[in-house]
Write a structure and sequence with these properties.
By secondary structure, the chain is an alpha/beta fold. The model has no long low-confidence stretch (mean pLDDT about 95). The protein contains 9 helices and 8 strands. The termini are close together.
């Protein structure tokens, strides 16, 4: 990809180390409504939006019975863990490297607004990002492409504008594929390289800092 592009970066789990915290928050929230699910199953779905996670976990019956209450409780459980969620190595360096190359930057998160606000502050990213999203911006979250389309819409550019997605889960990669974007991933989602490649990832890095150091070898050169 030559010239400037739009970098659409996931925040939660890609720039902020939060995936395992969210899995634990879901586990605790579900237990509070009488549902016990193995944490590893919950972890496998982190990166998928909360509007879709429960149906993927236990079908439409689980969503119908406990969906709204479980999501509310999960948000509160995540609130209690926010102090423990820290930027991943090189997260802000990656943002700076992208901006230094003249790309526009959108932070595309399906997290709740109050959590996105905390993450933006942890990254000191408000002056770096051209725009950002939250769960309130779309009806359907990842792996649907709506969040990525909204990220481009916030910049006032068409859905087919030259763009690259940076995420950490197979759900990010699938959303990028549905949106027609190449996807670069970091391993903080806890997925195997084979899974990420099978989903369509074009490059895989350990940390945001590793991606920043190798940016010239990616579609965000």
């Amino acid at each position: 990809m030559t010239g400037s592009a739009i970098a659409v970066l996931d925040i939660d789990g890609t720039l902020i180390d939060s995936n395992y915290h969210h899995a634990l928050a879901w586990y605790r929230a579900l237990r509070q409504v009488g549902e016990v699910w193995p944490v590893w199953r919950l972890h496998r779905l982190i990166g998928m939006g909360g509007d879709q996670l429960l149906t993927a976990l236990g079908g439409e019956d689980l969503e119908r019975r406990v969906g709204d209450e479980a999501r509310e409780r999960q948000g509160k459980e995540a609130d209690a863990l926010l102090d423990e969620m820290a930027p991943l190595p090189g997260a802000r360096d990656l943002l700076l490297a992208i901006k230094d190359r003249g790309h526009r930057l959108v932070l595309a998160s399906s997290a709740q607004q109050r959590h996105v606000d905390v993450f933006l502050d942890k990254l000191d990213a408000r002056d770096l990002a051209d725009a950002w999203t939250t769960s309130a911006d779309v009806d359907a979250s990842k792996p649907a492409p709506d969040l990525l389309h909204m990220a481009l819409h916030k910049l006032g550019v068409p859905a087919d504008a030259p763009s690259v997605m940076v995420g950490d889960s197979v759900w990010d990669v699938k959303a990028a594929g549905h949106a027609g974007m190449p996807a670069i991933v970091v391993r903080s989602g806890g997925f195997g390289d084979d899974e990420l490649r099978d989903a369509g990832a074009v490059a895989i890095f350990d940390t945001p800092g590793d991606l920043a150091a190798a940016l010239d070898d990616t579609p965000l050169a």
